[in-house]
Amino acid sequence: MQLLKLVESKVRVGVPLPWNVRNQDCTLLLARGHVIRNDSQLEALLERGMFVDIEEFKAVQALTAPAAKPPESIYTRWALAIDALESALPHLGETSDSLDAIQALADEILELADADPDIGLFMAVRQDHAKHLRYGYSHAVYTALLGILMARQLGWAAVRIRQIALAALTMNASIAELQGQMAAQDYPALDRQRTQIRAHPALSAALLEKAGVTDAEWIAAVMQHHEQPDGSGYPHGISSVSDAAQVLRMADLFMARISPRQLRQPLSIQDAARLMFRDDKGGPFSTATIKVLGIYPPGDFVKLASGEMGVVMRRGAEARTPLVAAVTDSQGKSVTSTLQRDTSQAAYAITGPATDRSLLTRVPPERLYGYAVHTG
Fold it and tell me: CA-CA distance, 88 to 84, in Å (whole number)?
């Protein structure tokens, strides 16, 4: 029996299960027809791990295939991209379907980056802090986006940009579940976890080869994405590192630094950019990243000269002058309307990042960009 891990979007509270649900050892957990009663029960089951016989899943899917439906919103497509990676990556090297799914997902992220990169960056910066256990998958998806935008800024050809996307999606294939566990744990990494981390570039590259990947640049980027030109990286401590691997390492590290953990708060965008620029000694890759993001990228929370606080919506002509949606009045009180502020105007200039980020949880992307954002 070959098992498929179920993700949140495949299970509905209050609706009878269309298949038998098992644990990863094939033991039956819930019989077909069982009803999950509430969100907390579903969350506990997802954390434990819910699996279904892939043949049973396909049979039910064939019977219940819906008629043509309207296109998904761009926000939903980003969420579904994470679901798709969580479904495919654990089976890399086991079935051809998994590699096909990852190839298709890279194309989807490239399309989303074309459709509206600002919304993509907003989703990356404003990650769901409650879903640590999915971190290994969300991190890879948003690293792919940043890598794509960096490579475009550097003027790379389309084939190399796609290699960056593929490498980002698979760089942590051997530890994606471990990453989620470590993001959720409230204690420092254990020795055995550190050992797995050190080994993961080589193990992930080996999974790609087992899956039938023959693209040497893709495999090399995964193998080298923690190596450094001064030889201080791992797993082999080499100093001859491909440009693709260096872009991937920088995007990977930047996204890791701004992502939440149970054990620590994320770094601010500005602090993460400062560290990246220092580590790269102001080289072309860190410069490209800063040009892509600006000083205050979409999703960041800022204070304005007017006294208002707002969420960055879109990057501006200059790194320091994005378009901002004010979500408070000049006294710092929350407002129901959203007023767009051009921060190139002195009256609305950004005076710095806002420290109290509690208001952000009440600002969904639909409020800033609208509800009918569709692509394709």
Answer: 6
Q: What is the pTM of this model?
A: 0.83
Structure tokens at 273: 């950019």
Q: Which amino acid is at 53?
A: D
Nearest to 310 by CA among 372, 367, 373, 370: 367
Q: Are 237 and 137 in contact (CB under 8 A)?
A: no
* Span 74-293 CATH architecture: Orthogonal Bundle (1.10)
Rounded to whole angstroms, what are the CA distances from 255 to 175, 177, 249?
17, 17, 10
Q: Can you tell me the distance from the alpha carbon of 213 to that of 151, in angstroms, rounded to the nearest whole number?
A: 22
Q: Which two tokens stand for residue 203?
A: 């193990």
Helix axis angle, 74-88 to 96-115, nearest 10°: 160
- Report the amino acid identity of residue 248: L
pLDDT tens profile 93-137: 887 899 999 999 999 999 999 999 999 999 999 876 556 778 999
Residue ranges covered by each domain of the chain: 3-63, 74-293, 301-369
Contact 58, 97 (CB under 8 A): no
List, for residues 263-291, the tens digit of each pLDDT value: 888 899 999 999 999 988 889 999 999 99
- Cα angle 295, 123, 301 (rounded to 5 degrees) comes to 45
What is the distance between the alpha carbons of residues 6 and 21, in angstroms, rounded to a whole number?
A: 9
